[in-house]
Amino acid sequence: MTYKFIEGSVTAAKGFTASGVHCGIRKNKTKRDLGLIFCEKKCTAAAVYTKNLVQSSPITITKKNLSDGYAQAVIANSGNANTCNADGDLKAQQMCDLIAEELGISADDVIVASTGVIGQVLPIEPIASGIKPLAEALSVEGCTDVAEAIMTTDTVKKEVAVETVIGGKTVRIGGISKGSGMIHPNMATMLCFVTTDAAVSVDMLQKAVKAAADDTFNMVSIDGDTSTNDTLSVMASGLAGNDEITAEGGDYDIFLEALTAVCRELSRKMAKDGEGATKLLVCKVSGAVSDKDARGVAKSVICSSLLKAAMFGADANWGRVLCAIGYSGCDVDVKKVDVSFASSKGRIDVCKNGAGIDFSEDVAKEILLEDEIDILVELNSGSFCAEAYGCDLTYEYVKINGDYRT
User: Is 83 a catalytic residue?
Assistant: First the structure.
């Protein structure tokens, strides 16, 4: 491991400040609903987005603005997704124009994002009135405020930062994310903003962002619904002073490892904070014949509603794991599959060579009552491995989503 975790998040890297205010999009005046991340210089930038055919207006505008590979600010709101609105593109562009004028930068260098209810017109008036106080509040300490400003049904802020050394220079990468429901592989109902002071070319940054997302955010599932607003963006200021990363290998590998660590930690935080969740579930698959099959099996298991319900009840129903593997469509010899459950209370083997074995239900329940559970799947057919992240399925999930809009 070439990196270490440090305190902070999106302002840990040199050149970045952040802020978050309540402007009035949300009725709850104690909840920040407008956030800003700003860099003192133009950054190389890259992003990946939801694969849902229905995409938010902020994604449309952000794609346009990032077409040249550069950005200097992120503005994001919660409480309204600005999706499926006739005037959505106009409102997203207005958000860029407003903050660009206040900061004295180009509107084309702004990443814009929204999260919240779909299909309700986004009021621009509260955003316009919040722009000046938002800009005035920018500070290194504002990272926590912007992390709060993007929360919807999230119960905790999601922040992380790491430090590594590239070309003899100390490099920092920090990120925040939101995501609690409407989360399924190929991004999630998430907004994630990452900053770094590494010098990275546009092409290499885009390559790293996609690779990191594939191993982390694209391996998360809460409820099987793929959102319309998912955006993962990264801005790189280059202020660390390393020689610009322009090719794979060496420095790129170190950067990718650290970026992936940030994304993985945020993925775990999102999965653990799934709507109504009481447990983080991590499916760890090993012994697959290919990377594709390892990922496919891990995703299939973590997406199983029946398994998620069993984990809520601390029921070691390993048959649901085998069932999910069986319909994954992956190259698996079921007669070679071993399954175990593990937590801080220990580990218990429940299936060998595709068949049940004797185990203590009492010990298994004690293990599964913990708030972080590993579902260990050994396919015994190859050398590839993968992890997927999810949570249990609870009564509270239905309650939250039964009246989410009203």
Answer: no
